[in-house]
Here is the input.
Amino acid sequence: MAPPRTTGRGDTPVRWTAFTRLAAGMVVLGLAVGAVFPLFAVLLGVPSRYAGDPVFRVACLVAGLVLGAANWLLARHVVGSRLRLLAGRITEVTHTVGDPVATAQGRVPPATALALPVGAADDLGATAAAFNALLVALERERRFRSVVQATNDVLALLTPGGQISFVSDSVSDVLGWSREELLGRQAQDLLHAEDADLFTADGEPVTREQDSSQVFLVQARHRDGGWRHLEVSSSDRRGDPVIGGLLVTARDVTERLELQRRLAFQATHDELTGLPNRAALLTRGAQLLSDRVRLAVLLMDLDRFKEVNDTLGHGYGDRLLAQVGPRLQPLLREADLLARLGGDEFAVLLPEVTAQQACTTARQLRDALRAPFPVDGLALEIGASIGVAATGEEPVEIGALLRQADVAMYVAKERQSGAELYDLSTDEHDRRRRLLTELGRTS
Here is the structure.
């Protein structure tokens, strides 16, 4: 192929178009036909004096040029119109398929609406049929892209080096970043330091050799500086020549995890005071006792609390109860557990203490509860009766310890002593239970 000609300045290449070449070919063909026709005229019986006349020869050349020009104009009109139609449709397809946002939002017609009429089964018809087949393939690809862009999950493709080479528009709703801001960035730059083990020191994704697919939770940085919890599913496709990277699907589970946390908290904590509830105390107590930990239980009932509710209303009583935890918690150790069992009844688990140490703690808590509680400008004075029960030589269940502490608490109320240690001699219910047991054995 001859090199392209250049302009006089030698900077802009000049190329002959297809129709220019066709015109030149028609000129040559016309001149050839005009030059050869006098010879055919002789063979057809035209006298040689006429066939050799210069005027006749010039007329043949002109006729050849006119015939070539007519053929050129006809070809330009027929072929050119089809090519212009094809070029226009390709331009429309470029705008239709090339706008992923408009495509995802359904604002553009389907690509197949731009199909060309095939007509005859000639070269132009074959070109139109190939273009229509391309439209069908593009429409399938556009539908797939629309699904990808419309999903709430974030779809991303990471290069073997850990860079983001593709990410769906849904990343804006999940993390606040635009696609343009994330393309080319290292994926590990968006993750919390706790998830650093997912990448090597060079930023390459880490996958398990035995299993190319993984599902895990990560914390990703939001554009506002906060963190979102994402459930990520990754599929290692670095060996795929088409994908050549790590395919990642991420779903925002921040609200779901927060709801689970709240539900778990509500199941084990008192709504009014925020303290652990009876279920949490029983679970913790059973665990300590199963581990053979020495344990003491304090059961306390607020004195004169009913008077507060009856006189001032339950609103005052609720605000008073909400102050019990902050009042007592500083007097307890980190290992201790303060819980609200219900109403004005509270309990404390004291692991690894003796009965005497538990009684000392009970008196400290009683003294703390004697100080007035400020509620809406009023100083409400109450007290507390506390029962103490501790494990001994024989194994005991947490329910039995609570019952013993309850017996001791009622003894404290009767004696108005503030705090009492469980004494078997004061347990009428225990004596009756043992009596019934002995009667059952002798019967």
Notes: Residues 433-443 have pLDDT under 50 and may be disordered. The chain has 15 helices and 14 strands. The radius of gyration is 46 Å.
